[in-house]
Amino acid sequence: MAVKLIYETHAITVDNETGIATGWSPGELSPTGVENARQLGERRRDVDLVYTSDLRRAVQTAEVAFGGGKEVRLDRRLRECDYGEYNGRPVAELAPLRARHIDVPWPGGQSYRQVVAETAAFLKDLPGDGVVLVIAHSANRWALQHLLHGIPLEELVDAPFEWRPGWEYEIS
To answer: Which domains does the chain have, with CATH numbers?
Structure first.
C-alpha cells in the first residue's frame, strides 16, 4: 500500500504581500490569498483527507478551499519554523540568517532540524493508503524534500521560493 502525499503551501497572506516572516504568528489571508485558496479547493477536490498546520493562515486556506466538504485534521507538527524573537520581522532580515539556524534554534524559537523531526513524526502517523493533502509552510516543504528526496537542508533553506500548484510524493 502507498500514500500519495500532496503538499500545498497555505494561500498568500497579508504578511507575504508585505514581506513579513510570520513564523508562529497566526497570519491572515489577503484577498488574493482567498482566491488562491478557492483555486486550491478546485484543483484538489479528489483528495481523500486534508491535514493542515494549526496556524490560522493554513486553517483559513483549508476552510476556504473545502468549506466543510472534506475531512480536515489540524496538526501542530505541520507548523512553520518558530523564528522566536524574529517572528513578524521582515523576510529580508531573516533570509540571510537561515543557514545559521539549521541546527541552532532561532533565539527563543526552533531550528530547521527540529521542523524536520516534527514532519518526520507526522509522516509516521499517515494512513496506509489514499491521497492525502497537506497544507503547511515553507519549512515543512523543505523538511519533506529533505526526508523524502535526501536534499540537504543547507541547499533548501537558501534556495529562492518558487510557488507552484503542489508537490507530490509517493510514500510506501
So the answer is: 3-171 (3.40.50.1240)
